[in-house]
Design brief:
- Helix content is about 50%, strand content about 20%.
- The protein has about 210 residues and is α/β, with parallel strands linked by helices.
- The chain folds into two domains: about 1-35; about 40-210, 3-Layer(aba) Sandwich (Rossmann fold), CATH 3.40.50.2300.
- Strand 5 and strand 6 form a beta hairpin.
Length: about 210
């Protein structure tokens, strides 16, 4: 039989290990969520407002921009409702763009709109009705994003994302990420050309050119 002292020690041990167990569960949950929400490890260290500013600046090097856009640059921010954190990522980037709402892009003002992905046909309609010129693509499945870039090439809509993986694996035109302690721009030249962009040579010299891997 256990005496009172032994029972007290057992109770204290149970409380201790229960607290440790709960702490470990919370740690795993927080870590998993943080990693899962990122569109790529490189995004974790790049301030989103800096990413937005560099994105708008990069667009000024597209020599076809003013040919393709007559009055106002319409930026769509595409997210995937079935993907955790995709909507919040698109919303955060929209918020970052809002900081530069008075900035002109090659003399053009811009507007932004959040778009939820409900299939290829629905996206085509949204691009047409919204007169979308540029599409930011939040985190999603590789195969689905490949379907999206097929649509944007047909519609001549320039695509941008926060993950270099999507530029390499899915044919998204551009990504700005954090590598080697500094921002780095990845550009899929063939994708950008297919989407109607024509970047100046001086811009091409400062980016990392990549090809899509099938």
């Amino acid at each position: 039989m256990f005496n009172q002292s032994s029972l007290t020690n057992i109770k204290n041990s149970i409380k201790h290990y229960s607290a440790v167990f709960i702490y470990l569960l919370l740690t795993v949950f927080i870590t998993t969520t943080s990693v899962f929400c990122a569109a790529g490890a490189e995004q974790l260290s790049l301030p989103i407002e800096l990413e937005a500013k560099l994105f708008l600046t990069a667009l000024t090097y597209d020599r076809n921009l003013k040919k393709n856009v007559t009055e106002q640059l319409n930026i769509g921010l595409l997210y995937f409702p079935d993907e955790p954190c995709s909507e919040s990522q698109a919303s955060d980037f929209a918020g970052a763009l809002e900081k530069f709402k008075d900035k002109k892009v090659s003399g053009l003002g811009f507007e932004k709109v959040l778009l939820d992905y409900k299939g290829a046909g629905n996206l085509k309609d949204k691009i047409t009705l919204g007169n979308i010129n540029v599409l930011y693509i939040a985190s999603g499945k590789i195969d689905v994003i490949r379907d999206v870039t097929k649509i944007t090439r047909e519609a001549k809509v320039f695509t941008f994302t926060s993950s270099a993986e999507y530029v390499i694996e899915c044919g998204v035109s551009m990504a700005i990420v954090f590598q080697e302690s500094k921002p780095k721009i990845f550009l899929n030249f063939s994708s950008a050309k297919a989407e109607g962009a024509d970047f100046a040579a001086k811009f091409l010299r400062i980016v990392k050119l990549v090809d899509q891997q099938d």
